[in-house]
Amino acid sequence: MTKKEKHPKVDEYLSKTKQWKEEFEKLREIAFESELTEEFKWNHPCYTLNGRNVVLIHGFKEYCVLLFHKGALLKDPDGILIQQTENVQAARQIRFTNVREINEMETILKAYIHEAIEVEMLGLEVALKKETEYNVPEELQLAFTETPTLKTAFEALTPGRQRAYLLYFSQAKQSKTRQARIEKYTQHILDGKGLNDR
């Protein structure tokens, strides 16, 4: 077996990192000791198995994380996996605010990474919610009734685009805001565009 190599872009990234440098280096050491391959994706150190993403190291303002791409499938006996928002379906994070926490949890982290590798080897997939399982706001249903071509255009969008619209429309607390958002994006939907398409 050939010796594993550290990815030069991860070296470069860590050399420029200021806020979570020590934490990232420790997380890298732990991830690198596994059988995963070190890569650099989305401007972050990413660890893969046969080209499939397993673990990512990421930093935020208040904490840094070890993100498991299929974390929803892990058993989580220690109750440490966090779902970033209610709309994140597969990924789960373990959050840290200092390197001491990482050192104290090293054995646990290795066990979680090992389980994540097993999940990937077994080819397990997270059962994602279908667009039909998302809440369709009353205001959108009304718009579909008033403009049948809008419903047809919406159903022709990719599942991801449909989901983005449903989440965006539903997040508004007030009915008039939901209505305004729907009106603003009606032409976008009719043109077959996603929420962020120009």
Q: What does this 3D model show about the protein?
A:
The chain has 198 residues and is an alpha+beta fold. The chain folds into 2 domains: 8-121, Alpha-Beta Complex (Aspartate Aminotransferase, domain 1); 131-190, no CATH class. Helix content is 45%, strand content 15%. It has helices at 8-16, 21-32, 99-104, 106-121, 138-146, 148-156, 159-171, 175-190; strands at residues 37-41, 44-49, 52-59, 64-68, 92-96. It has a 5-stranded antiparallel β-sheet with strand order 1-2-3-4-5. Strand 1 and strand 2 form a beta hairpin. Helix 7 (159-171) runs antiparallel to helix 8 (175-190).
Average predicted local confidence, pLDDT: 90
Could you say what the CATH topology of the largest domain is called?
Answer: Aspartate Aminotransferase, domain 1
CATH uppermost class of the largest domain: Alpha Beta
Biggest sheet: strand arrangement: 1-2-3-4-5
Output the helix-strand order.
HHEEEEEHHHHHH
How many DSSP-defined strands? 5
How far apart the termini lie comes to 49 Å
Structural class: alpha+beta
Percent range of helical residues: 40-55%
Return the domain count: 2
- Weakly predicted, low-confidence segments: none
CATH architecture of the largest domain: Alpha-Beta Complex
Overall 3D shape:
elongated
Number of helices: 8
Radius of gyration: 21 Å
User: What share of residues are in beta strands?
Assistant: 5-15%
Largest sheet: 5 strands, antiparallel
